[in-house]
Amino acid sequence: MAEKIKLSNVLASEQLSPHLARSVIEERLRNAIVDGRLPPGTAVRQQEIADLYGVSRMPVREALRQLEAQSLLRVEMHKGAVVAPLIGEDAVDTYELRVLLESQALRQSIPLLEESDIASARSYIEQLEHETSHAQIGRLNRLLHMTLYSKASNQKLLRLIENELNEEERFLRFHLSSMGLGKLTQDDHNALVDAAASKQVEEAVGVLQQHLNNGARVIRNYLNKQRAV
Protein backbone atom coordinates (compact mmCIF):
# COMPACT_ATOMS: atom_id res chain seq x y z
CA MET A 1 0.00 0.00 0.00
CA ALA A 2 1.11 3.56 -0.70
CA GLU A 3 1.45 4.58 2.92
CA LYS A 4 4.10 1.86 3.47
CA ILE A 5 6.50 3.34 0.92
CA LYS A 6 9.85 4.13 2.50
CA LEU A 7 10.94 7.69 1.84
CA SER A 8 14.56 6.51 1.60
CA ASN A 9 13.59 4.55 -1.52
CA VAL A 10 12.37 7.76 -3.18
CA LEU A 11 14.53 10.54 -1.74
CA ALA A 12 18.30 10.25 -1.95
CA SER A 13 20.10 10.64 1.36
CA GLU A 14 22.13 13.85 1.50
CA GLN A 15 23.69 16.09 4.13
CA LEU A 16 22.08 19.53 3.91
CA SER A 17 23.30 22.79 5.38
CA PRO A 18 20.86 24.11 8.00
CA HIS A 19 20.11 27.40 6.20
CA LEU A 20 19.09 25.58 2.98
CA ALA A 21 17.36 22.61 4.55
CA ARG A 22 13.75 23.85 4.58
CA SER A 23 13.64 25.02 0.98
CA VAL A 24 15.50 22.00 -0.39
CA ILE A 25 13.34 19.52 1.52
CA GLU A 26 10.18 21.29 0.40
CA GLU A 27 11.31 21.19 -3.24
CA ARG A 28 12.39 17.54 -3.14
CA LEU A 29 9.16 16.41 -1.53
CA ARG A 30 7.02 18.55 -3.82
CA ASN A 31 8.68 17.11 -6.93
CA ALA A 32 8.24 13.56 -5.66
CA ILE A 33 4.55 14.17 -4.92
CA VAL A 34 3.79 15.94 -8.19
CA ASP A 35 5.49 13.34 -10.39
CA GLY A 36 3.85 10.46 -8.53
CA ARG A 37 6.87 8.88 -6.83
CA LEU A 38 5.08 9.57 -3.55
CA PRO A 39 1.47 8.56 -4.29
CA PRO A 40 -1.63 9.58 -2.31
CA GLY A 41 -1.73 8.11 1.17
CA THR A 42 2.05 7.89 1.61
CA ALA A 43 3.07 8.74 5.17
CA VAL A 44 5.64 11.55 5.35
CA ARG A 45 7.35 11.23 8.71
CA GLN A 46 9.39 14.09 10.09
CA GLN A 47 12.06 12.00 11.77
CA GLU A 48 12.63 9.84 8.69
CA ILE A 49 13.22 12.94 6.57
CA ALA A 50 15.42 14.56 9.21
CA ASP A 51 17.58 11.43 9.31
CA LEU A 52 17.85 11.32 5.50
CA TYR A 53 19.14 14.87 5.31
CA GLY A 54 21.06 15.06 8.57
CA VAL A 55 19.05 17.96 10.00
CA SER A 56 16.83 18.65 12.98
CA ARG A 57 13.07 18.22 12.72
CA MET A 58 12.47 21.99 12.72
CA PRO A 59 13.20 22.67 9.00
CA VAL A 60 11.36 19.46 8.11
CA ARG A 61 8.32 20.62 10.05
CA GLU A 62 8.36 23.98 8.24
CA ALA A 63 8.69 22.28 4.84
CA LEU A 64 5.72 20.03 5.61
CA ARG A 65 3.64 23.03 6.65
CA GLN A 66 4.36 24.69 3.31
CA LEU A 67 3.34 21.56 1.42
CA GLU A 68 0.17 21.29 3.49
CA ALA A 69 -0.65 24.90 2.59
CA GLN A 70 -0.24 23.92 -1.08
CA SER A 71 -2.74 21.06 -0.57
CA LEU A 72 -0.06 18.46 -1.36
CA LEU A 73 -0.07 17.06 2.18
CA ARG A 74 -2.76 16.70 4.78
CA VAL A 75 -2.65 15.71 8.44
CA GLU A 76 -4.62 12.62 9.42
CA MET A 77 -5.45 11.25 12.85
CA HIS A 78 -2.94 8.63 14.03
CA LYS A 79 -0.88 9.00 10.84
CA GLY A 80 0.42 12.54 10.82
CA ALA A 81 1.27 14.06 7.44
CA VAL A 82 0.30 12.01 4.39
CA VAL A 83 0.30 12.78 0.68
CA ALA A 84 -3.08 14.24 -0.20
CA PRO A 85 -5.50 12.67 -2.71
CA LEU A 86 -5.08 13.69 -6.33
CA ILE A 87 -8.36 15.53 -6.14
CA GLY A 88 -10.73 16.26 -3.27
CA GLU A 89 -14.48 16.43 -3.03
CA ASP A 90 -14.18 20.21 -2.89
CA ALA A 91 -12.56 20.38 -6.33
CA VAL A 92 -15.58 22.00 -7.98
CA ASP A 93 -15.66 24.62 -5.21
CA THR A 94 -11.97 25.20 -5.89
CA TYR A 95 -12.70 25.90 -9.55
CA GLU A 96 -15.39 28.39 -8.57
CA LEU A 97 -12.86 30.13 -6.34
CA ARG A 98 -10.32 30.11 -9.16
CA VAL A 99 -12.78 31.95 -11.39
CA LEU A 100 -12.87 34.79 -8.88
CA LEU A 101 -9.13 34.88 -8.16
CA GLU A 102 -7.87 34.45 -11.70
CA SER A 103 -10.35 36.91 -13.19
CA GLN A 104 -9.05 39.56 -10.81
CA ALA A 105 -5.42 38.71 -11.57
CA LEU A 106 -6.09 38.87 -15.31
CA ARG A 107 -7.76 42.29 -14.98
CA GLN A 108 -4.75 43.63 -13.09
CA SER A 109 -2.19 42.03 -15.40
CA ILE A 110 -3.42 42.58 -18.97
CA PRO A 111 -2.84 46.37 -19.12
CA LEU A 112 0.79 45.79 -18.07
CA LEU A 113 1.61 42.77 -20.23
CA GLU A 114 4.45 43.33 -22.68
CA GLU A 115 5.05 41.82 -26.10
CA SER A 116 7.54 39.43 -24.57
CA ASP A 117 4.87 38.11 -22.18
CA ILE A 118 2.46 37.49 -25.05
CA ALA A 119 5.23 35.79 -27.03
CA SER A 120 5.96 33.51 -24.06
CA ALA A 121 2.27 32.65 -23.73
CA ARG A 122 2.01 31.80 -27.43
CA SER A 123 5.13 29.66 -27.13
CA TYR A 124 3.53 27.63 -24.34
CA ILE A 125 0.41 27.12 -26.46
CA GLU A 126 2.51 25.94 -29.40
CA GLN A 127 4.25 23.44 -27.14
CA LEU A 128 0.90 22.28 -25.73
CA GLU A 129 -0.40 21.63 -29.25
CA HIS A 130 2.42 19.15 -29.90
CA GLU A 131 3.08 17.77 -26.42
CA THR A 132 1.98 14.21 -25.62
CA SER A 133 3.48 13.81 -22.15
CA HIS A 134 0.81 14.40 -19.52
CA ALA A 135 3.46 15.61 -17.09
CA GLN A 136 4.61 18.28 -19.53
CA ILE A 137 1.05 19.28 -20.44
CA GLY A 138 0.30 19.98 -16.78
CA ARG A 139 3.49 22.01 -16.41
CA LEU A 140 2.94 24.03 -19.61
CA ASN A 141 -0.67 24.75 -18.66
CA ARG A 142 0.48 26.22 -15.33
CA LEU A 143 3.22 28.30 -16.96
CA LEU A 144 0.82 29.66 -19.59
CA HIS A 145 -1.71 30.86 -17.04
CA MET A 146 0.88 32.30 -14.69
CA THR A 147 2.48 34.23 -17.58
CA LEU A 148 -0.84 35.93 -18.31
CA TYR A 149 -1.31 36.81 -14.61
CA SER A 150 2.32 37.73 -13.98
CA LYS A 151 1.90 41.52 -14.03
CA ALA A 152 -0.86 41.55 -11.41
CA SER A 153 0.05 43.91 -8.59
CA ASN A 154 -1.31 41.72 -5.77
CA GLN A 155 1.45 39.23 -4.99
CA LYS A 156 -0.58 37.33 -2.41
CA LEU A 157 -3.25 36.81 -5.05
CA LEU A 158 -0.63 35.35 -7.38
CA ARG A 159 0.63 32.99 -4.68
CA LEU A 160 -2.89 31.71 -4.03
CA ILE A 161 -3.44 31.13 -7.73
CA GLU A 162 -0.14 29.34 -8.21
CA ASN A 163 -0.97 27.00 -5.33
CA GLU A 164 -4.22 26.05 -7.04
CA LEU A 165 -2.47 25.60 -10.40
CA ASN A 166 0.16 23.38 -8.75
CA GLU A 167 -2.64 21.17 -7.42
CA GLU A 168 -4.28 21.03 -10.86
CA GLU A 169 -0.94 20.22 -12.51
CA ARG A 170 -0.49 17.19 -10.28
CA PHE A 171 -4.02 15.97 -10.99
CA LEU A 172 -3.74 16.46 -14.76
CA ARG A 173 -0.58 14.39 -14.89
CA PHE A 174 -2.50 11.30 -13.82
CA HIS A 175 -5.98 11.77 -15.26
CA LEU A 176 -5.65 13.88 -18.39
CA SER A 177 -6.45 11.16 -20.93
CA SER A 178 -9.27 9.55 -18.96
CA MET A 179 -10.94 12.93 -18.48
CA GLY A 180 -10.78 13.83 -22.16
CA LEU A 181 -8.73 16.98 -21.65
CA GLY A 182 -5.85 18.11 -23.82
CA LYS A 183 -5.81 19.67 -27.26
CA LEU A 184 -9.46 20.70 -27.05
CA THR A 185 -8.50 23.32 -24.48
CA GLN A 186 -6.13 25.10 -26.86
CA ASP A 187 -8.99 26.96 -28.57
CA ASP A 188 -9.71 28.64 -25.23
CA HIS A 189 -6.04 29.34 -24.65
CA ASN A 190 -5.62 30.91 -28.08
CA ALA A 191 -8.69 33.09 -27.62
CA LEU A 192 -7.47 34.11 -24.17
CA VAL A 193 -4.04 35.16 -25.41
CA ASP A 194 -5.53 36.96 -28.44
CA ALA A 195 -7.77 39.03 -26.17
CA ALA A 196 -4.88 39.76 -23.80
CA ALA A 197 -2.65 40.82 -26.69
CA SER A 198 -5.26 43.31 -27.90
CA LYS A 199 -5.84 44.58 -24.33
CA GLN A 200 -9.49 43.50 -24.43
CA VAL A 201 -9.71 42.94 -20.69
CA GLU A 202 -13.35 41.95 -20.26
CA GLU A 203 -13.29 39.75 -23.36
CA ALA A 204 -10.27 37.93 -21.95
CA VAL A 205 -11.98 37.54 -18.56
CA GLY A 206 -15.04 36.09 -20.29
CA VAL A 207 -12.92 33.51 -22.13
CA LEU A 208 -11.10 32.62 -18.92
CA GLN A 209 -14.33 32.14 -16.98
CA GLN A 210 -15.76 29.91 -19.69
CA HIS A 211 -12.50 27.93 -19.73
CA LEU A 212 -12.52 27.38 -15.97
CA ASN A 213 -16.25 26.59 -15.86
CA ASN A 214 -15.67 23.92 -18.51
CA GLY A 215 -12.91 22.51 -16.34
CA ALA A 216 -15.23 22.45 -13.32
CA ARG A 217 -17.82 20.54 -15.35
CA VAL A 218 -15.26 17.91 -16.38
CA ILE A 219 -14.10 17.55 -12.76
CA ARG A 220 -17.71 17.20 -11.58
CA ASN A 221 -18.36 14.44 -14.12
CA TYR A 222 -15.14 12.70 -13.09
CA LEU A 223 -16.06 12.76 -9.40
CA ASN A 224 -19.55 11.47 -10.15
CA LYS A 225 -18.07 8.51 -12.04
CA GLN A 226 -15.64 7.81 -9.18
CA ARG A 227 -18.52 7.69 -6.69
CA ALA A 228 -20.39 5.29 -8.93
CA VAL A 229 -17.51 2.80 -9.08
From TrEMBL:
Keywords: DNA-binding, Transcription, Transcription regulation
Record domain HTH gntR-type: where: 19-86
Pfam families xref list: FCD, GntR
The keyword Ion transport is annotated on this UniProt entry: no
UniProt key word Signal: no
Organism domain of life: Bacteria
Alphabetized SMART domains for the sequence: FCD, HTH_GNTR
InterPro entries to which the protein is assigned, alphabetical: GntR_C, TF_FadR/GntR_C, Tscrpt_reg_HTH_GntR, WH-like_DNA-bd_sf, WH_DNA-bd_sf
Signal peptide annotation: none
Family matches, as PANTHER family: TRANSCRIPTIONAL REGULATOR, GNTR FAMILY (PTHR43537), TRANSCRIPTIONAL REGULATORY PROTEIN (PTHR43537:SF41)
Protein name as catalogued: GntR family transcriptional regulator
